[in-house]
Amino acid sequence: MTSSPFIATTVTSATSLLHAYRNAFSHNARNSNIMYPHLLKVAKMERQGAPTDSSQFWIVCCSATKPDNVDFVLSCTDGPLGTYPIFIFSPRCDMNSDFITPRIKLLVETLLQRIDVRRAYSIFAVEPVSRAFANFWRLATGIGYYPEPYYAAMFSYCTRTSRAPRRQNTILDNTTYHLRRAVTTDIPTVTILCNGFASTADPFTQTLEQSAREAEILVNNQQLWVHTIKEGNMSEDIASIVAVTRDADSVAAITKVYTNPKWRARRCAERLVRYVCDQLLETKESVVLYVAHDNNAARKVYDRVGFLGLKKEAYGNVPGVEPWLEIGFDRESVDLGMW
């Protein structure tokens, strides 16, 4: 019997995974950001004595002849609000169908040995990888996927050199604003804004109770910035929020941007995103984010701040800027998580 040219290794300890493959993550800190910060967090908890959680694991795919060279890493992990999608990242930038197909097939076969099929409610990865996984998963399980992806987005990044010069402040008559980290007293208003953001992210909508829990986590972990605004004699309000929930050694990710509809068309989101990037880039090499292909307004905002590859004439045509897809599986056959 011919042996497989690939090896898939399942790892349940974040500490062990980092010991064996840290360079694959740290040397590719931007495109590994979807799982690297969580991996670091779990490893820290393990060092502090937390038991290994067997429901969370990673599958590393390598060539049999080069077991130290990582081709793909798949993660099946949990977040503070629920289970995460299946994430896949690769340090390789030269992937084609011949490279992707056999390795993703092996990852699917290995994953099926570890989980109930209901756990895999969606896959999020670079577009060709996500499509390959969805097709192999459907063949292996009989569970179909939705032709319309849950999320189709461009992955982009901003660096100290790409960051655009600060725009002249927009002067609004009788209006003042302040940019700062959120504090505990902001939680009730942040709850409403988190709920508004989730209402646009079908099927991952939230109850107000779930949004309150998320707001509490974001504020208490100092992962949220706010843009306050005061107009005339009105009470001060929070116009926009920006969350940064995936923070590793050299890269941080903006994971939520939302503006109260009442305060839109005043450049609040741009002003706050720029401010947050300024703060983060004091210590980080890059700030990353995903922006939906059909969200032209957001794409223009991020482009003005300095995120690369988002201009219409060069959309995605920058090294490291690439399309990602979240493909959802038949909700009658899965247990929907939250991220």
UniProtKB/TrEMBL annotation:
InterPro entries: Acyl_CoA_acyltransferase, GNAT_dom. Pfam families: Acetyltransf_1 (PF00583). Residues 177-332 form the N-acetyltransferase domain. One of its GO terms (molecular function) is acyltransferase activity, transferring groups other than amino-acyl groups. This is N-acetyltransferase domain-containing protein. It comes from Crucibulum laeve.
